[in-house]
């Protein structure tokens, strides 16, 4: 199908992965253990993710998928060459904080970690791809969790900015685009897997979480300031797990609930893009049973360091209801949502709503008036390898096509969008479930949920489809 393109010539078509979901080699090259390394596949994953285990410990009888990932650590040269064949203009990945600072509180970084990322980014550049780096994509050194209680401690700001400074010094000549924190709002929905928060029995978990969120925001603003000073040619963005909140009905109570849910996620971006807490913050915190956040002298000034662009992931819209507990929940979502009766869902219960992407784009741009960047979009689905080895993932192509069309409509509405980045462009470990069978890739990786498999890479049908989308700058879908 052919459409008129609204995509500028420098539109950044890309593919994304994250270190914790791909690299493996968890104790190689001097890397320290991270919070994500404590997440097994299976039933025991959920309590850890939610921070319900005060001191999570490894259990030898369980399988921990991040320890081996898809072995990207050893195979990155071949993987990047394969992705370059698709014509990606930008490759998005994250840096594993515990590869540079194994325990998190060292004074100096691990040289092997630096050498690894320099080589990875050089490889991307050799293939003509720009690099977009996320400094914190859910993972952090476990030493900061056990030693400091993660982001509940203000000392984290020192450790994070030290780590960020190292990244700018060592990789600033290779990386043009930076994101400080992946899906910053996920700290509220999945505190341990999103931000290393593990709760002590009896404490006010929400109080701890919103205070920790404040520390993250201060660290992010200091990092933005540092980039602007150290790398004036680079661009830095914030990132939200996007997706509008629709009211379940036209009852004012549902409409109000959708506004509250929206505020609870966008306050992060309000701070990062506008430079101050929104006026609704006090009443939002009160509605959660949270006392005022403790601010240190100077924090207000620090928060004025705002980002250059607003990036977001979009997988699905959400539905808010004032009586959510009485309704059927939409299973599988990290962010709580009622079931939307008008939308189909993936096998994992995520609604499929391309128009929701156009709505989200319009809402974000109306609110922030900064360039947007769609840095994650994709469909988690099971793939079947046919007898001859082909993988006909037409369902994934359909999903991408409809979302790219909706994105083009959003751009025609006047929303400036820097680029489109397909998530999990090569199959990787699912963040929410730890499964390999929840596949997003255009490149298939032969690995199963129990860790077995040859790790061989092969192209799916979507590989050639995306290649022509990029080659035609979005005119051939
Ligand atoms: C986003 C994350 O929330 O969604 C990714 O930034 C994640 O890390 C992606 O993989 C899809 O979620 P899941 O749980 O299906 O992997």
Would you mind describing this structure in some detail?
Keywords: Glycosidase, Hydrolase. This is BglH_2 protein. It holds the Pfam family Glyco_hydro_1. The chain is of the alpha/beta class. The protein has one domain: Alpha-Beta Barrel (TIM Barrel), CATH 3.20.20. Helices cover 38% and strands 12% of the residues. The chain contains 16 helices and twelve strands. The strands form three sheets. An eight-stranded parallel barrel has the order 1-2-3-4-5-7-9-10, surrounded by five helices. The chain has a two-stranded parallel ribbon with strand order 6-8. Helix 15 links the parallel strand 9 and strand 10. Helix 14 packs parallel to helix 15. The chain is globular, with a radius of gyration of 21 Å. The termini are close together. The structure holds 6-O-phosphono-beta-D-glucopyranose.
What are its keywords?
477 residues; alpha/beta; eight-stranded parallel beta barrel; 16 helices; binds 6-O-phosphono-beta-D-glucopyranose; BglH_2 protein; EC 3.2.1.86; Glyco_hydro_1_AS
């Amino acid at each position: 199908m052919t459409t008129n393109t609204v995509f500028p010539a420098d539109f950044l078509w890309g593919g994304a992965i994250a270190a914790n979901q791909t690299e493996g080699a968890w104790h190689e090259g001097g890397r320290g253990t991270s919070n994500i390394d404590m997440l097994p596949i299976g039933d025991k994953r959920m309590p850890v993710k939610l921070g319900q285990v005060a001191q999570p410990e490894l259990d030898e009888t369980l399988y921990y998928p991040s320890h081996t990932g898809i072995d990207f650590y050893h195979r990155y040269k071949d993987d990047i060459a394969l992705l370059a064949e698709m014509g990606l203009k930008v490759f998005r990945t994250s840096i594993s904080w515990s590869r540079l600072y194994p325990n998190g509180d060292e004074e100096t970084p691990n040289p092997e970690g630096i050498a690894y990322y320099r080589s990875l980014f050089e490889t991307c550049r050799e293939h003509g791809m720009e690099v977009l780096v996320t400094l914190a994509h859910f993972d952090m050194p476990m030493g900061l969790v056990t030693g400091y209680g993660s982001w509940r401690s203000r000392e984290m700001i020192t450790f994070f900015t030290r780590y960020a400074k190292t990244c700018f010094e060592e990789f600033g000549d290779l990386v043009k685009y930076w994101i400080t924190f992946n899906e910053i709002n996920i700290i509220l929905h999945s505190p341990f897997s999103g931000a290393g928060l593990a709760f002590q029995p009896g404490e006010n978990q929400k109080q701890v979480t919103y205070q920790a969120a404040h520390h993250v925001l201060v660290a992010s603003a200091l990092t933005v300031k540092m980039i602007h000073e150290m790398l004036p040619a680079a661009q830095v963005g914030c990132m939200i797990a996007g997706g509008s909140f629709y009211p379940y009905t036209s009852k004012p109570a549902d409409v109000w609930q959708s506004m509250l849910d929206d505020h609870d996620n966008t306050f992060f971006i309000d701070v990062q893009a506008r430079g101050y807490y929104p006026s609704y913050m006090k009443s939002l915190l009160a509605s959660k049973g949270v006392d005022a956040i403790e601010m240190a002298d100077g924090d207000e000034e620090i928060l004025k360091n705002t980002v250059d662009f607003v990036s977001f992931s979009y997988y699905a819209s959400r539905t808010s209801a004032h009586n959510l507990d009485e309704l059927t929940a939409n299973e599988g979502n990290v962010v709580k949502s009622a079931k939307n009766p008008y939308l189909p869902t993936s096998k994992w219960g995520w609604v499929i709503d391309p128009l929701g992407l156009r709505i989200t784009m319009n809402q974000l741009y109306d609110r922030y008036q900064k360039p947007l960047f769609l840095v994650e979009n994709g469909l988690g689905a099971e793939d079947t390898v046919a007898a001859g080895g082909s993988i006909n993932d037409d369902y994934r192509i359909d999903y991408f096509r409809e979302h790219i069309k909706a994105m083009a409509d959003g751009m025609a509405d006047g929303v400036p969008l820097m680029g489109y980045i397909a998530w999990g462009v090569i199959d990787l470990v699912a963040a929410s479930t730890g499964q390999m069978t929840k596949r997003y890739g255009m490149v298939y990786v032969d690995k199963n949920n129990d860790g077995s498999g040859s790790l061989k890479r092969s192209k799916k049908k979507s590989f050639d489809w995306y290649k022509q989308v990029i080659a035609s700058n979005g005119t051939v879908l």
